[in-house]
Write a structure and sequence with these properties.
Jelly Rolls; eight-stranded antiparallel β-sheet; six-stranded antiparallel β-sheet
Amino acid sequence: MKEADFRLISALGNIGYDPKFRDRKGEEGMYGKQQCFNWAERKPRVKINAGQLKRCPQVCGLRRAIYRPVPAVLGITFALITLTISQAADAQVISQAARAQLIEVTARPAGDIVNWGQLNVSPGTTISTPQPFTSYGGIDGSATVDQNGNATIQEQCCRGLEGLWDGNFAPGDLLFDTSNTAVRLTLSFKKPVKSVGTQIGANTFGSFIAQIQAFDHSKLLGTFRENGYETSGAYNSAIFLGVMATTANITSVIYTVTNGTGSPEEFAINQVTISQ
């Protein structure tokens, strides 16, 4: 017997092929990491009749089985089931690999920029959404708060500058504020991007949790969260939260914030860094 012949058995029984093991009649067997023996008699707890396949009871947390030849028809059936299990396992590996292609980014990388000053509105101005934008490099997209709600363009004060947002972005940063009633911000892109991220701050002082979800159209690619702490320091200490994929397959991201009590919170972001 070859180890490949035991793929089905291993998948079902948590056992492995041991070419060195022979039962009393010499058939090759399989084993777990701890052999499943009746230690008093020094023999396997379960015997396998010809044409059958069993697993022994769970002993020491693992199992053991002895294999005997099966009829050809059953062999074909086992082969088909083995193929199905193998395909399912391959699909699971592929799925895990797809998820692994998206990583969290917590420091601003080099890339194209969406600066909210490009909207050509004065700080303190309320705007409707979806609000279209174009990056310096020509990437088109839109920003939407909740369901087509309103947003406000703010400016981080102070330290000698005028401004309406007294937080911990860099002084003079222009911000996209979700306003007092909106708690979700969606950034959508006309063409998929490879990375997207921004600094984020809550509307109230103290601790908060920021979340980003990345999508390939309706498919969720991944969710990441970071802890933040809002102050009035204006020292550019606002946390950065973004995502990066190995290929350009991000069509949108959704930002949300919850405060220290777990309630949804208004928030603002500064310039967005993106790449395709």
